[in-house]
Amino acid sequence: MPIESRPSRPGFWEEWSLTTKLLAIMMLLMLLVLTGTSAWVLENLRDSLVQRTDERLISASETLAKQAYQDVFQPAELQSGDDDAEEAPSSTTIDSNSWDQLKSLLPGGFYVQFYDTNGDPIRDPVAPEPQNQPILPKIDEKEVYSRGGEPFTVAGTSSQWRARAMKVKNTDVLVSIAVPFDREVDNINERARNTMIGIGLLALAMVAGVGYWAINNTFRPLRDIEKTASRIAAGDLSQRVPSYPRNTELGRLSAALNTMLGRIEDSFDGQTRSEKRIRQFVSDASHELRTPLVTIRGYAELYRQGAITKSDDIANAMERMESEAKRMGVLVDDLVVLARLDEQRAAEIGPIDLHKVVRDAAADAAAQAPDRDISFIGLDGEDAQPVPMIRGSESKIRQVIVNLAGNAVRHTPEHTAIEFAVGVVGLPEQVDPDSADTGEIREGGTRGHNGRNGGKNGAKDKLRERGFVTGGVRIFRRGDSAGNDQADTQPTPPTGPQPGEQTDPQGTAQTDLPTGPEPDQQPKDRAEGSEAANIVPDVTAAGSITVDESLRGFPNGRVRFEVRDHGDGIDPEVVPRIFERFYRLDVSRTRDTGGSGLGLSIVKAIVENHHGAISVHETPGGGATFRIDLPISDNGDTTADTRKDER
């Protein structure tokens, strides 16, 4: 039987908070510092007291020697054992009067004992405290000479003593003098120790208080972060950590946490929206699939119960079941397409000639609705011109155009016109390096030497992006020879440009638009670069000129195609929902025509997978215009020449 491993219990230290740990470490370090400092101070104090006691002992012994020499042992005197002076014979006996006189000369608190040369005591010692006397070694000549007159420590009956051994000069008398010091030193040390303990406790208390305040104040931001994290854990993802200076650890931590929290919130919101869309999608798909299934089941039950017996009724029931099955199959196919688009599966990517794709879609629509006026034009209303290549899946792009064309045919009145327009917008204005000083600008690589803005701004803006133009704009026509284009600027009414106009008083260049380059301009245009000649600048549907969009996401410009109808148009209130899945403007009409409500959702998903944008606008004069913008490839693909197919 396997033994289950138990989780190890945290130790005593691990259970402490970080504040407590830091405070404990600080207090321990402070205690060690105070203890070491106190020991060092007390030891130095003891050495100082011993030195001071030795000085007193030496001074007292010299005074005693002088007085004893003059009053008792004259002419002898006390001297240290290493004195080289000549010795004179002297008596080693001291009478009672002399001894009493000698004791009166001794300072208080000193112990004095005289010896003969053999170390035998002469008379009784002078002891300030009979119960506390030093335990001296045998004092003889050898001991005196070995000590050399230096003080030394000896034990006593109740304390330690400092002693000094000497020889009385010119006599055979030895003397030892001692003074108790341990008691005095201990008293002073004790007072010093108590003082240092008090100071140490006060210092520890101050360090504890200041340290707790400092640590608590330093960790306050961490507690704020902890509270914020608790609120986030409770479900409030909008909480953020307070900001601090970026050059501090807390500043970098708060910035990193806020960045992480922002990403988590975005991810969570995205997941929530995705789950909501999935639930709504499943609900809508179930609803849409239930209708044909109920129809098929109803007819099947009627047939099984014998309610349908006539051959015409049976044929009608079979026809209705087949129709509903087909509609359900279309719905399932659309669901599969959307699922694959959501998965962003890799598709065959290659260059796409959008000019040809849109032209084919227009031709197919004309074949399907021969009673309509279906045209294939440029964005300016003139003949459609070749456009730069884009990259993507040609089959998906064709599906987009087919879906939009089918909607335009199905949902507009009969005999109304449908237009398929294609062109380029958002190209940068470039200054010709050779003409920067003369004010000549090439817009999108095609403006000639008659540009009207170069003199003032050309030298300043080497590369300037034009705004998103949604109205009548400069018209550019491509010549018959690829790589040789001439372009001029003129305002365009809805019906298109009128050749032959001259420059207006404001300085707008208005010239004829030739279908091919003039002979003398052909070499010059070629010298300015074949890449510039292959770009079609921006042209768009007629209307007022407005600049209301940026070019972010399309640094190289964009190819635009539009599907314009002239029906009843779309209510502006429902435009924001028009690309939602299963959303229908007219439920009954959509189901009658076999639609699933997923067509525009598929279109939007395909366009976004190609890094493009789709929008809905009102057609001038009434109707709806679906506008698709796709980025121009930045890998150097040249403009497709589709005139070969037209020939």
TrEMBL record:
<dbReference type="InterPro" id="IPR036890">
    <property type="entry name" value="HATPase_C_sf"/>
</dbReference>
<keyword id="KW-1133">Transmembrane helix</keyword>
<dbReference type="InterPro" id="IPR003594">
    <property type="entry name" value="HATPase_dom"/>
</dbReference>
<feature type="transmembrane region" description="Helical">
    <location>
        <begin position="196"/>
        <end position="215"/>
    </location>
</feature>
<keyword id="KW-0902">Two-component regulatory system</keyword>
<keyword id="KW-0808">Transferase</keyword>
<dbReference type="InterPro" id="IPR050428">
    <property type="entry name" value="TCS_sensor_his_kinase"/>
</dbReference>
<dbReference type="InterPro" id="IPR036097">
    <property type="entry name" value="HisK_dim/P_sf"/>
</dbReference>
<keyword id="KW-0812">Transmembrane</keyword>
<feature type="compositionally biased region" description="Gly residues">
    <location>
        <begin position="447"/>
        <end position="457"/>
    </location>
</feature>
<keyword id="KW-0597">Phosphoprotein</keyword>
<dbReference type="InterPro" id="IPR005467">
    <property type="entry name" value="His_kinase_dom"/>
</dbReference>
<protein>
    <recommendedName>
        <fullName>histidine kinase</fullName>
        <ecNumber>2.7.13.3</ecNumber>
    </recommendedName>
</protein>
<dbReference type="Pfam" id="PF00672">
    <property type="entry name" value="HAMP"/>
</dbReference>
<feature type="domain" description="Histidine kinase">
    <location>
        <begin position="284"/>
        <end position="634"/>
    </location>
</feature>
<dbReference type="GO" id="GO:0005886">
    <property type="term" value="C:plasma membrane"/>
</dbReference>
<dbReference type="Pfam" id="PF00512">
    <property type="entry name" value="HisKA"/>
</dbReference>
<feature type="transmembrane region" description="Helical">
    <location>
        <begin position="22"/>
        <end position="42"/>
    </location>
</feature>
<dbReference type="InterPro" id="IPR003661">
    <property type="entry name" value="HisK_dim/P_dom"/>
</dbReference>
<feature type="domain" description="HAMP">
    <location>
        <begin position="216"/>
        <end position="269"/>
    </location>
</feature>
<feature type="compositionally biased region" description="Low complexity">
    <location>
        <begin position="498"/>
        <end position="508"/>
    </location>
</feature>
<dbReference type="InterPro" id="IPR003660">
    <property type="entry name" value="HAMP_dom"/>
</dbReference>
<feature type="compositionally biased region" description="Basic and acidic residues">
    <location>
        <begin position="458"/>
        <end position="467"/>
    </location>
</feature>
<dbReference type="GO" id="GO:0000155">
    <property type="term" value="F:phosphorelay sensor kinase activity"/>
</dbReference>
<keyword id="KW-0472">Membrane</keyword>
<dbReference type="Pfam" id="PF02518">
    <property type="entry name" value="HATPase_c"/>
</dbReference>
<feature type="region of interest" description="Disordered">
    <location>
        <begin position="429"/>
        <end position="541"/>
    </location>
</feature>
<dbReference type="InterPro" id="IPR004358">
    <property type="entry name" value="Sig_transdc_His_kin-like_C"/>
</dbReference>
<keyword id="KW-0418">Kinase</keyword>
